[in-house]
């Protein structure tokens, strides 16, 4: 039923479809959709309402007991019933990208934006894509008691992730996408997410690595198109234990301030698929240098201390001082003898 210019699908249309498992009415012109009779679509597992013109969506509590996947992307939705997704006891997969939704906090003392939707305490939910929603704030404990494994928050420019916004996902979240959101720093500690495996932070404004530690389990990290000049060596050492794939092209990296990181990349099992795009700035080169060609010698310029030379010069100075001291002592003795003879 997709691509049919449908404007309305009344609930009575489904009266004789008790065995229906998949409903696809995507890419139509539907502005309102309701399921209020729990006996109508008892076996429905998938609803695809993506790319319509939805302004109103009402799903009565427990009317869709077996629904597992709900596709609502591309509707420019501005609000939904606050507890809509809690009323779907077996929902696992939500596609909500390309809308204008707001997220409620799970904390009672917080003032929520009008028309916000709640994502906490949805025990069955595993996959949530809420990218490109013009989200401004991700409140603290937004996903508490919701064991998400996949979360996409990308394409929400200026997103403010409040401290504790990912609280409750410590033991479940494996995939976190936060690309193209103009993020300059992360107020939430990724190191607390013990199951996190894949992180995409590309095309943001990050000038430092997010807070991580040796307990990190991240296997894939995308840092492309940020403002990173140096990659903290201690953080990289902590990541090395689990990291398998690292993307870091299109950053204003410094060649000589990342030698330790370069050594890790070259001598560990970490793969850098975009290594040909990873460049750095060097004082002796007017153009960016591919980081794969950087050597220790390139960073031992004329101003760098030559420890061998320093040692030789120090020894020579000490010998001269010793000689001068001996000469002074000799002159004093001679003077003393002359005085005694007189």
From TrEMBL:
Pfam families: LRR_1 (PF00560), LRR_8 (PF13855). It comes from the Eukaryota. Keywords: Leucine-rich repeat, Membrane, Repeat, Transmembrane, Transmembrane helix. The keyword Membrane applies. The keyword Cell inner membrane does not apply. Signal peptide: none annotated. The chain crosses the membrane at residues 307-329. InterPro entries: Leu-rich_rpt, Leu-rich_rpt_typical-subtyp, LRR_dom_sf, SLRP. It comes from Oryzias javanicus (Javanese ricefish). This is LRRCT domain-containing protein. Gene3D superfamilies: Ribonuclease Inhibitor.
């Amino acid at each position: 039923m997709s691509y049919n210019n449908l404007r309305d699908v009344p609930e009575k249309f489904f009266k004789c479809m008790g065995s229906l498992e998949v409903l696809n009415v995507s890419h139509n012109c539907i502005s309102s959709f309701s399921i209020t009779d729990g006996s109508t679509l008892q076996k429905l597992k998938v609803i695809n309402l993506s790319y319509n013109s939805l302004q109103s969506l009402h799903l009565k509590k427990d009317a869709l007991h077996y629904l597992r996947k709900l596709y609502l992307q591309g509707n420019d939705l501005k609000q939904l019933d606050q507890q809509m997704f809690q009323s779907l006891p077996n929902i696992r997969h939500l596609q909500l990208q390309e809308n204008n939704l707001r997220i409620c906090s799970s904390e009672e003392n917080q003032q929520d934006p009008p028309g916000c939707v709640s994502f906490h305490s949805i025990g069955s939910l595993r996959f949530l894509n809420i990218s490109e929603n013009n989200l401004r704030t991700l409140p603290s404990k937004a996903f508490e008691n919701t064991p998400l494994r996949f979360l996409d928050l990308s394409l929400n420019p200026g997103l403010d992730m409040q401290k504790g916004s990912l609280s409750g996902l410590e033991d479940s979240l494996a995939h976190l996408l936060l690309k193209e959101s103009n993020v300059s720093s992360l107020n939430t500690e990724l190191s607390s997410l013990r199951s996190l495996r894949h992180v995409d932070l590309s095309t943001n404004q990050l000038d430092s690595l997010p807070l991580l530690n040796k307990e990190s389990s991240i296997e894939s990290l995308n840092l492309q198109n940020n403002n990173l000049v140096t990659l903290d060596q201690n953080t990289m050492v902590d990541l090395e234990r689990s990291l398998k794939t690292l993307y870091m092209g299109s950053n204003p990296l410094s060649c000589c301030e990342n030698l330790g990181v370069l050594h890790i990349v070259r001598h560990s099992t970490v793969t850098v698929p975009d290594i040909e795009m990873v460049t750095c700035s060097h004082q002796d080169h007017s153009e960016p240098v591919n980081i794969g060609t950087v050597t220790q010698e390139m960073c031992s310029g004329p101003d760098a201390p030559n420890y061998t030379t320093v040692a030789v010069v120090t020894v020579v100075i000490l010998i001269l001082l010793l000689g001068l001291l001996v000469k002074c002592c000799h002159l004093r003795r001679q003077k003393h003898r002359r005085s005694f003879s007189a």
